[in-house]
Amino acid sequence: MLIKWIVCDVPKNKKVDFSNAQEKWGSLANIDGFLGQIGGWDLNTSSRAGIISFWRDQLSYHKFMDQEHDKIFKEGKQKDTYERILIEIYDKKFNINNYQITKFLKEAKIIRVANCVVKEDKQEHFEKMQKDIWNEEMSKYQEMLAGVFCINDQHKYLIVSLWGSVEAHQLYVERTLPLLVENSKLEDDLIKINGTVLNLDDNWSVI
Q1: Mind listing the domains of the chain with CATH numbers?
Q2: What is the pTM of this model?
């Protein structure tokens, strides 16, 4: 599975225009290999939007980019609605729990995304801690619906989790997250980490 992660910085006076443009991606649903797309506004930075999409494989994604993407993008006139855009492509390495993330896109209210740059000699340890510590503890939360652990060709990692409510996610942040950071010795592995929590907008979903 291929995962596309997009972050846009949007001027406050263009947030409505951006949102309206984001709602025009419905034709993605008809593209071969497309598995779903969700997005919303960053809970901590109100002028920042995040969108994540899921594709069967590299082949189907690149075919879409070559043949369909520009047409949809131009029709939505989205280029004029943001100041900055970051696009990253990842491949799924494993699931966080026993469920496929694309099965829960409709149910999710919150998505948590962590971008991690890991020291080269710590990558094996980082992945082991994710499997042995993080996955087990995160899976104990009933409203942590599903998640994926991803990597790209620059050895960056993306960890994505879907949550059924704001309250469940906040409980995780307060009670569990600090312990996981400590027990996994996360800070020893990292060069850099950026965390994003999105309040999902149903109108942006293409499922």
Answers
A1: 2-204 (3.30.70.100)
A2: 0.94
